[in-house]
Here is the input.
Amino acid sequence: MLRAAALALCLSPLPAAAQEWCAFQSLSQTEQAICSSPLLGGLDAQLTEFYRRSDASEASQTDWLRRRNECGSDLFCIEASYRGRIAELTEAPGAPPAPAPAAPSEPLRPWCDASGLNPTEETVCANELLANMDAALGAVYGRAIARPNDPSQADWLRGDRDACGTDATCIGRAYLRRIVELGGRIRENGG
Here is the structure.
């Protein structure tokens, strides 16, 4: 259920990067997740370009694809797999230099430019997927609770989410658990 929620959170009204293979009928869980997520689709396009310009062997790419597919529909695992492979391809001798990451023109979340962010908040602000999950949680929280200074939210922030430190997978799972919990409240209240 958490994986389905994660996939739903990554869906966007904008189309995912148009990978030719996304039109194939028999996609694996991993490929379906990639085709449904603009972030993962973009990473796939980047990786494809770096692979084409590299001198990496076909066997190494096949091995990486096998490891990536072991992620199933785990979006964090897939993202980490792509980022790791891109790093391998761009750090290999003779590889083209990786483009410098563009600084976002605006913070990923309105509170990301606040001073004194803790390490978990800095991780959320540096990760597009986590920032999207934070936005989704804000919407669900507003619908489920809709009262300021709710102690359960403060308890969740400090006790559950922030206990993850900078571990993006842990943070993402904490967000999913909270979103599912609050979604249950909405459903129970007829929403």
In short: Confidence is low (pLDDT under 50) at residues 1-18. Residues 161 and 174 are 6 Å apart (CA to CA). DSSP finds nine helices and no strands in the chain. Residues 110-188 form one domain.
